[in-house]
């Protein structure tokens, strides 16, 4: 279970035991988001975290926050800093047309990457990300795609078992059952530990 009052006390927000946009905004800010981004993420997360079961337990919330904090540089970057040229020609990402690497570079808190992901998650939520991948960099839309991706990969189950490496591989390699270490493993562990300290 999620201890709502403990989380609110740790965030130094009003302790009423009811997680809402205000508490989540404070959590995103504590994890590094600038005020405007934190507020937009908090508002949207108050809806989508419930839909995708991320608020059901403290471990789910902590792992989600820690992993996405790694991917987005503390929720500061909703679009990958690199050009995306490294993704050019990556058929595994659906990048089959010239310019796809740059066009479909990572966006949103989970840094959703590739034409295939843009098409799949766009169709899932009814927004044409394949034509307008820039929309995934809007924080309130990006947090939705992050939750959808998290759900699609079944990462709540790994969070319930506190399996951070599997979650990192689910995000970074697209396969939580990979036996390799995800890129940025040490930073993922550190950011998840911070999230646990705030939430658990």
TrEMBL record:
Transmembrane segments: none annotated. The keyword Hydrolase applies. Keywords: Hydrolase. InterPro entries: Cell_Wall_Dynamics_Protein, Glyco_hydro_19_cat, Lysozyme-like_dom_sf. The keyword Hydrolase applies. GO terms for molecular function: hydrolase activity. Residues 167-186 are annotated as: Disordered. It comes from the Bacteria. Residues 66-151 form the Glycoside hydrolase family 19 catalytic domain. This is Glycoside hydrolase. It comes from Brevundimonas pondensis.
């Amino acid at each position: 279970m999620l201890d709502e009052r403990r989380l609110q006390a740790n965030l130094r927000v009003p302790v009423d035991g009811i997680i809402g946009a205000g508490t989540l905004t404070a959590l995103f800010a504590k994890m590094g988001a600038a005020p405007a981004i934190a507020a937009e993420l908090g508002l949207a997360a108050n809806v989508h975290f419930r839909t995708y079961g991320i608020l059901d337990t403290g471990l789910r919330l902590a792992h989600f926050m820690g992993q996405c904090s790694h991917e987005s540089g503390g929720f500061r970057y909703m679009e990958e800093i690199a050009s995306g040229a490294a993704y050019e020609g990556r058929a595994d990402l659906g990048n089959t047309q010239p310019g796809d690497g740059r066009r479909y570079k990572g966006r949103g808190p989970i840094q959703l990457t590739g034409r295939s992901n843009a098409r799949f998650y766009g169709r899932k939520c009814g927004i044409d990300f394949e034509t307008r991948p820039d929309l995934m960099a809007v924080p309130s839309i990006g947090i939705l795609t992050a939750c959808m991706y998290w759900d699609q990969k079944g990462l709540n189950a790994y969070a319930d078992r506190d399996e951070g490496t599997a979650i990192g591989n689910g995000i970074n390699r697209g396969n939580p059952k990979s036996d390799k270490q995800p890129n940025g493993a040490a930073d993922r562990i550190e950011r998840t530990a911070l999230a646990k300290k705030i939430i658990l």
